[in-house]
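Homework help board

Subject: predicted structure for assignment chain

Our instructor gave us this sequence and asked us to write out the predicted structure in token form, then describe one feature. I got the tokens but I'm not sure how to describe them. Can anyone check?
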Amino acid sequence: MAPENPLLAPSELPYRLPDFAAITDEHYLPAFEQGMAEQRAEVEAILESGPPTFANTIEALELSGQTLARVSRVFFSRAGAHTTPRIEEVRAAVAPMLAAHADSISLDPRLFARIAALHAQRDELGLDPESHRLLERHHTDAVRAGAELADADKERLRELNAELSSLSTTFSARLLAGANAAAVHVGDVARLDGLSPGAISAAAAAATARGYGSGYLITLVLPTGQPVLEALTDRGLREEIHRASIGRGATGDENDTRDVVLRLAALRAERAGLLGHPSHAAYVIEDNTAGSVDAVASMLADLVPAAMANADVEAAELAEAAGHPIEPWDWAFYAEQVRRERYEVDAAALRPYLELERVLQHGVLHAAEELYGIRFQERHDLPTYHPDVRFWEVSDSDGTPLGLYGGDYFARESKRGGAWMNALVPQSGLLGTRPVVMNTLNISKPAEGEPALLTIDEVRTLFHEFGHALHGLFSAVRYPTFSGTSVPRDFVEFPSQVNEMWLERPEILARYARHHLTGEPLPAELLERLLASRSYGEGFRTTEYLAASLLDQAWHTLGADDAVDDVLTFEAEALRKAGIAHPLVPPRYRSTYFNHVFAGGYSAGYYSYIWSEVLDADTVEWFEENGGLRRANGDHFRRTLLSRGGAVDAMDAYRAFRGRDPEIRPLLVRRNLA
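My token output:
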């Protein structure tokens, strides 16, 4: 008899951590199939449970599908962080199945009739605020999913959802394969002049891992800008790496994503029209804090002129420093030289002071301990899906167990690019679960026995993603629908961006920024220069970000009748129309490798980062005004905002924390846009 599938029952490990040691790739597909069958049966039981009540309909829906939710969380965590050919096969197979399954529930007229009946009398049911909000959420979600459509339109919607799900999976798979194929192999170590010994060693290890008999491999990170470009002195190699980066997805081979982009944009526009919206962006933003496409367009447009002007000033400075006109692949190199000359800050000289383990233990985790009173104890006895993965048990200030925090920090061929947080187990009072959250990054893994030395941007990413983890760990809601980061897309980045502030706090930086060999702290004068230099380059950073955001909006404000024939032509024209087509500053993501919007959850929502940054900058000012790293401040932020998840309106939570609406002034000052 075959062994029992470990995904079909809650794990018996601490905090219901999935038993990765027992799970094989062959367990996923049958677990998906059984999970969907179980939930269909559970929904049928709801439909046969007599007159609708909150308990037998809304709460019963929250309790349904636990097997499917469990296998989905485990599977998609693995698929992003450590995929295999079999996992890719399963992902392609289950994508349309999951879309059809979701539609079978959300488009069931019998279920919607029960939800609508309860919604009509919601103010008479005597519900507590979170339950009242849950009923409203289920009704809104059902309407937005098409529950009120005619039968023929529902059938077309099912077809669209199935194809869209498959296409997103295809985009992700092609992008991963294309990024791996685009890695630049270098035979002569002399061409790596400028890189640190550790970076060269990591490149040699990457070449070995990919099967090269010799040489060095420069692997690509997800954004357009590749970190090595700031250090490499070989201009030809810089150009080769830059062209490899911007060429991803437009290669004319099996990894080309352009046909997928066109189809995704067209189908999303058609679906939005079917649901009564002029565009996919209108459909998405309606349910976010921004509220309308016009509000997003107005904010982005207002920021463009100053950002472009700042980028032009920076470009002129870089050309003067170079002594010749610069190209996009020169920008990072000469920006680093100008930064070094102006502020006497050498990015390469910083890296020996930014060793991963110390940054993590004495920076990221310590800041959380100081601010929130929580404690971390690493667990070496828990199973993982890869040897690089680690887990910490997190306890509250009174010793009460809070949950598990997992870290998967190093890049590998089986991991998609970027950095993210996900919940393997979400917190829920209804389900009796404590959170298990993961941070996944793509830091270059050093050779055996050597330290992982980080760039300051990688340190920032570590703090940022841990901010998401705290949002999940501090969740204190009843219903899983509202758990952790289940908030509007243009609000979810806010807490994570706030957590970046502790990177630069002197009392935290002094603990983690120490030389990995001598233990000497980062020299005070270097620290001062580092903090003084933090606003340098905002023209470039804001311009590349706005270009990506406006590109996302351009694709997703297309109507159902708008035809696009060529991806790159459309992209160039969209950037020109938006006034953001800077010849030296390409978008942070071009269409062909814009994973956030064509395979992730950010379609029409990439603007969220700067929208959230308004709240972030305003919040950082509040912390500064109230004494910074103080338990009272952390407790207030946690109680009023981080713990609430989606159980309250996002902006109501912000007002409860800040005592007023957000102000944009701190953001404009931060980005030199005032």
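Reply (TA_rk): Your tokens look well-formed. For the description, you could write something like this. The chain has four domains: 6-148, 184-246, 258-343+537-652, 351-535. That's the kind of observation they're looking for.
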